Amino acid sequence: MARRRIGATLLLAPAGLWLLAMLVLPLVVVLVFSFGERGPAGGYAPAFTLANFLNLGSRGAAFRNTLVLAPLGTLACLLIAYPLAYVLAMRVGERWRTVLLVLVIVPFWTSILIRTYAWIFLLGGQGIPKLLGWLGLGQPMLINTPFSVLVGIVYGYLPLMVFPIYVSLERLDKRLLEAADDLGAPPWRSFWQITLPLSLPGVATGCLLVFILLMGEFLIPAMLGGGKVFFVGNALVDLFLQSRNWAFGSAVAMALVVVMLVTVTVYMRLMRRWGGGRDDVALM
Amino acid sequence: MTDRDDHISRQRFMEELRRYRKGSVSRRHFLGVTGLGLATVALGQGLGPRRAWAQEGIGDRVAIATWPNYHDPADFDAFTQATGAYVDVSVFGSNEEMLAKLQAGGSGWDVFVPTNYTITTYVSEDIIEPLDLAKIPNYDPASFDPRFAEAGTVDGKVYAVSKNWGTTGYAVNTTHAGDRQMTTWKDFWDRTKEDFSGRTMVHDYQLTTIGNALKYFGYSFNSVDPKELADAEKLLLEVKPHLFAISSDYQPSMRPGDAWMSMCWTGDASQLHRDIPEIAYVLGREGGEIWSDFYAVPKDAPHREAGYALINFLLDPQVNAREALFHGYPVADKRVNALLPPEVLNDPILYPAAELLAPLEFGAAVTLTDPNRAELMARFKSA
């Protein structure tokens, strides 16, 4: 028994130490800083004040943008990724499947920075709007709008949504679908009652993955939002790199951590209640 | 070297440079016809400075932090050819961002380009140290216009050497301006709310964005007065929905015509006007900023020798003249001006009329560290 415990401790040690040094200790520093003051030339000066937390309202717009665009981006990713994953898992032969899966991964071979930069040109006045103009559809301003940020988000995060859904669909026992067919269920019904419920764990994983990363996103809004579509991540970059108010920046960071914890907890509760129930039904 | 580089006329050199930049001639043709190719080869073979640098062992890389569109990449290539040190360039849009990186430590920079009003803060924050001028033989204090070079000297010690100087006005694509001439900052802000709505850019930089909003009310560009800053903030928040973007790198948006007007520094204005003649440069009649930029070496520079070598290389009047022809910023070094063609020296974008220059202000050190200006800018961006 004792030996077992020592073994488990040793196995956990690398990850534990890593988390302690890279997550817990920095968070403690951020927490301490969040009660401090801005230094005379910027940076941090020791103090104990709640002023930074009372000032959080001045970043309300950034929090609102994040809390609207992160779920919206997750939903858009889901709506595009699900049919794609469905076709990959259910409708294509073995050989094509590999090719198509590789195509989904290929964008990851280039830096997200460069890929997002390309969208500046695509969405800029000489890109898609010009094409729309030729087609007689007017020349809408696309770049530096919430829409362009959403496009960038879907583009950047799609693969993270496709893979978990693909895996859960791929593992689905196809005999269940044949049985449904034999019993006279029309395709939409077997999809609704078998495929969809069984793929929900993949959907939940994909959504969580994309949503958490989006909550901390700053690169895509910075590049495709023209400094006008502001996420909390952008407010943080600004506070640390421009106005050099580390104390207030730490308070905003703590607030973001809390908002994330709350939303993710609520989300997981809901998923367990809905998805879990259906899982049981489907398995019987 | 001097004679060899000069074997085509300055006029001709300019024409060839423009042809090369437009892409109508190849790099090889350009280097051949201007003699720069020969010069590069000569440097590369170690006839000149290479041996000296190689002996000192400056290492294989040097990192510089600078501003957008502020160097000819070909000159960095030439430096690498001559010394073997690869030039790692990072670009910033504000002094505040550079200061933040240096304050946090471990920036990894060997050279950076601060503006006049920041140098005293870098000295008092113990971030830069007096330059070892023996390592910059190309720096000749007597050749520099003290008006633009003196901010590099603090308490009698030279902490930074002059790079360029210039002004901050705005670039406007006159095809969209109609008959109404634009001459003031009031025009800039008012018309952003009218016919330039959705097409105007302001810098991602507190000094100029707040400063030029202050000019709307006739206040000092450098004001830190809370009431005056509150007026500026009100204007900025009013204008924000009408902005195309908040960014200090505006050429990529001005060139394809997405943005029609932007706060703009001298060199970007000359580069834009050179390629798109209908883009004009306006200095607000109320005033605004005149500035000078410098080369400085951070105390924690990891490749100090290479940093000095790069500064010395860039201050070589021949190199500096090539840089000026490329980026279109005026130089405070009269040795360089002697090499520049008259059309550059008479260009009103580079050298505005005296009555436009008179009301301009140099940035004040207090604006860099003032917490209210910093927070105002951050609030404006996150609004």
From TrEMBL, chain A:
Q: Does the keyword Membrane apply?
A: yes
Q: Which SUPFAM superfamilies match?
A: MetI-like (SSF161098)
Q: Tell me which residues make up the ABC transmembrane type-1 domain.
A: 63-269
**What topology in the membrane does the UniProt record assign?**
Multi-pass membrane protein
The keyword Transmembrane is annotated on this UniProt entry: yes
Q: Which GO terms describe its cellular component?
A: plasma membrane
InterPro entries, A to Z: MetI-like (IPR000515), MetI-like_sf (IPR035906)
GO biological process terms, alphabetically, are:
transmembrane transport
Domain of life according to the entry: Bacteria
Q: Which residues cross the membrane?
A: 12-35, 68-88, 100-122, 142-167, 198-226, 246-268
Any idea which UniProt keywords this protein has?
Cell membrane, Membrane, Transmembrane, Transmembrane helix, Transport
Concerning Pfam families, the annotation shows: BPD_transp_1 (PF00528)
Q: Where does the record place a coiled coil?
A: none
Per UniProt, subcellular location reads as:
Cell membrane
**What family is this?**
Belongs to the binding-protein-dependent transport system permease family. CysTW subfamily.
Q: What is this protein called?
A: Spermidine Putrescine ABC transporter permease component PotB
Which source organism?
A: Rubellimicrobium mesophilum DSM 19309
Q: What is the lineage of its organism?
A: Bacteria, Pseudomonadati, Pseudomonadota, Alphaproteobacteria, Rhodobacterales
From TrEMBL, chain B:
Q: Does Transport appear among the keywords? A: yes
Sorted UniProt keywords: Periplasm, Signal, Transport
Q: Which GO terms describe its molecular function?
A: polyamine binding
Choose one Gene Ontology CC annotation of this protein and give it: periplasmic space
Subcellular compartments: Periplasm
Q: Which Pfam families match?
A: SBP_bac_8 (PF13416)
Its main localization is periplasm
**Keyword Nucleotide-binding attached:** no
Q: Name one GO biological process term.
A: polyamine transport
Any idea what this protein is called? ABC transporter, periplasmic spermidine putrescine-binding protein PotD
